[in-house]
């Protein structure tokens, strides 16, 4: 019998003295505060495109940080390294995006473009009720001609439904350049007409940029929705990091992603987000 | 069975943890830091709030173990005919791989109690000496996936198990486990778990009735 055993045999265990200690009721508020505080730190790092500055003790991997606090680990481009040797400019990003959206079979192309249409919606869901089986065609075009002199839509993408409607989106991709006068109006007009003919009730117009600048804010106020019928149309802003995160998640869900596309998006993140 | 109650009230902390993903991330983050270091970038004026977060995370972890212990008592009998219950000291020191602690309950999401009887087979495995007794493991689990009960007999339990409609073999736990019931309310309905436990005990000792 050890000394400790002997002491235990004649005296109650020391921890029993804590029986009478009254404990405070459980309060989750400090934990929520901690979650918000750490989520802000994660977001700051995500915006900077580099999680390496985070304390290793906070999150073992960037993927876990994203999953824990942003709920966006699946399909996120942080799972791969970017092409470090290239600095993508606007036309390269939009061409690359259209290239990867159009890649593969009809099924893959359809699912990728549906993922994009979902990602540009604030609700992260498709604007009208239809199934992939209703889709008879899908296409994405970069630098799409819009009729006006020297003006091109950065990316226009749509799916064609069996009933003839085209559900689509127009993306104005910004990477530091200003939006010029009349640019957005001419894109709106072009999208409504052949050869694009997007369905007026479901078209989505977005300006994608690293952040919402005063210049973009001014444009959004000037272009609420001139020729499109409902309040939900009109130009909206979406940050690159949000679009890329949502797109990655939607692509993963519909199982139509591939390694090249992920690495392209990771490179875009490095250059634009 | 040990209890006639067919419901169990989860601690508030455990229920909130199980049902709120943001709390799960926060608790895990605080526990990962431990009590010996602080998260990077913490300000002096944030210190009291962070210490309270440590208290809350510790509450979740300890209540988690308490909830497992309560669930175990609500589902399994403390005595099983034909088997001798192992003490906590025995479970910690003998080759049961079933020591009990707050930390282990938290990381494993299981609580096991062991029962022994002299080996009728006289056989040995690589892990156990020829003189080792047979060991009956009875366990409960609470996790984000739900609740379930588990049962295992050493040596060799994978070949045949309890009622196949209720149990499947879990390679990780090396035990038969029942179908998980998702947690949607702070009050758990135990009737299915108790039914599964009765079936498991019949399998563990077909010739005997379990007793309290």
Q: How many separate helices of chain A?
A: 9
Low-confidence stretches of chain A: none
Global geometry of chain B: elongated
Mean pLDDT of chain B: 85
Element pattern of chain A in H and E: HHHHHEEEHEHEHH
Major pleated sheet of chain B: 6 strands, antiparallel
Give the strand order of the largest sheet of chain B, numbering strands 1, 2, ... along the chain: 2-3-4-5-7-6
Gyration radius of chain A (Cα, Å) is 25 Å
What would the principal axes of the Cα set say about the shape of chain A? elongated
Largest protein interface, residues of each chain: A-B, 24 and 32 residues
Contiguous runs where pLDDT drops below 50 for at least 5 residues of chain B: 123-129
Profile the largest sheet of chain A. 5 strands, mixed
* N-end to C-end Cα span of chain B: 6 Å
Task: Kindly describe this structure.
The complex is a heterodimer of chains A (273) and B (212). With 273 residues, chain A is α/β, with parallel strands linked by helices. Chain A has helices spanning 3-10, 29-47, 62-70, 90-102, 106-119, 183-192, 214-222, 240-253, 259-272; strands at 135-145, 152-161, 166-173, 204-209, 235-239. A five-stranded mixed beta sheet of chain A has the order 1-2-3-4-5, sandwiched between helices. In chain A, a hairpin with a 4-residue loop joins strand 2 (152-161) and strand 3 (166-173). In chain B, the strands form two sheets. Chain B has a six-stranded antiparallel beta sheet, with helices on both faces. Chain B has helices at residues 12-19, 21-33, 47-75, 88-93, 102-108, 191-204; strands spanning 7-9, 84-85, 111-117, 134-143, 146-154, 167-170, 175-178, 187-189. Helices cover 36% and strands 20% of the residues of chain B. The longest helix of chain B is centred in the N-terminal third of the chain and has 29 residues, at 47-75. In chain B, helix 1 (12-19) packs across helix 2 and helix 3 (47-75) packs across helix 5. Chain B is of the alpha+beta class and 212 residues long. The interface between A and B is medium-sized, with 24 and 32 residues.
């Amino acid at each position: 019998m050890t000394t400790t055993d002997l002491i235990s045999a004649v005296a109650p265990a020391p921890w029993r003295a804590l029986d009478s200690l009254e404990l405070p009721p459980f309060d989750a508020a400090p934990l929520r505060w901690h979650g918000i505080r750490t989520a802000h730190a994660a977001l700051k790092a995500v915006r900077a495109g580099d999680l390496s500055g985070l304390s290793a003790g906070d999150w073992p991997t960037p993927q876990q940080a994203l999953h824990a606090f942003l709920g966006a680990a699946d399909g996120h481009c942080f799972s791969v390294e970017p092409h470090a040797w290239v600095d993508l400019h606007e036309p390269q990003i939009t061409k690359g995006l259209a290239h990867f959206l159009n890649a593969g079979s009809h099924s893959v192309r359809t699912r990728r473009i549906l993922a994009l249409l979902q990602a540009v919606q604030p609700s992260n869901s498709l604007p009208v009720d239809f199934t992939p089986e209703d889709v008879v065609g899908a296409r994405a075009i970069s630098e799409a001609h819009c009729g006006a002199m020297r003006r091109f839509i950065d990316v226009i993408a749509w799916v064609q439904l069996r009933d003839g409607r085209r559900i689509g989106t127009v993306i104005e991709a910004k990477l530091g350049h200003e939006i010029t006068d009349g640019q957005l109006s001419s894109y709106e007009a072009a999208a409504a007409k052949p050869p694009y003919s997007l369905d007026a009730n479901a078209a989505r117009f977005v300006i994608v940029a690293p952040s919402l600048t005063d210049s973009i804010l001014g444009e959004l106020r000037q272009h609420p929705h001139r020729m499109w019928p409902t309040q939900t149309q009109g130009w909206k802003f979406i940050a690159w990091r949000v679009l890329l995160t949502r797109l990655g998640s939607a692509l993963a869900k519909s199982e139509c992603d591939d390694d090249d596309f992920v690495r392209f998006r990771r490179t875009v993140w490095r250059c634009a987000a | 069975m040990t209890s006639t109650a067919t419901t169990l009230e989860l601690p508030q902390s455990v229920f909130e943890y199980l049902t709120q993903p943001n709390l799960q991330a926060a608790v895990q983050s605080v526990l990962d830091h431990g009590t010996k270091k602080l998260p990077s970038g913490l300000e002096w004026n944030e210190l009291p709030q962070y210490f309270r977060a440590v208290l809350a995370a510790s509450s979740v972890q300890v209540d988690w173990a308490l909830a497992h212990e309560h669930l175990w008592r609500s589902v399994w009998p403390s005595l099983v005919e034909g088997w001798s219950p192992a003490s906590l000291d025995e479970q910690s020191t003998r080759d049961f791989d079933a020591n009990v602690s707050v930390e282990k309950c938290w990381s494993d999401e299981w609580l096991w109690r062991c029962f022994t009887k002299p080996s009728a087979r006289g056989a040995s495995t690589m892990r156990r000496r020829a003189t080792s007794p047979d060991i009956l493991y009875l366990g409960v689990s609470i996790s984000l996936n739900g609740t379930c009960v588990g049962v295992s007999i050493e040596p060799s339990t994978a070949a045949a198990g309890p009622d196949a409609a209720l149990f499947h073999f879990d390679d990780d736990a090396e035990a038969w486990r029942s179908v998980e019931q998702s947690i949607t309310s702070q009050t758990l309905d135990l009737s299915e778990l108790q039914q599964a436990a009765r079936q498991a005990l019949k399998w563990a000792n077909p010739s005997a009735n379990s007793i309290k």
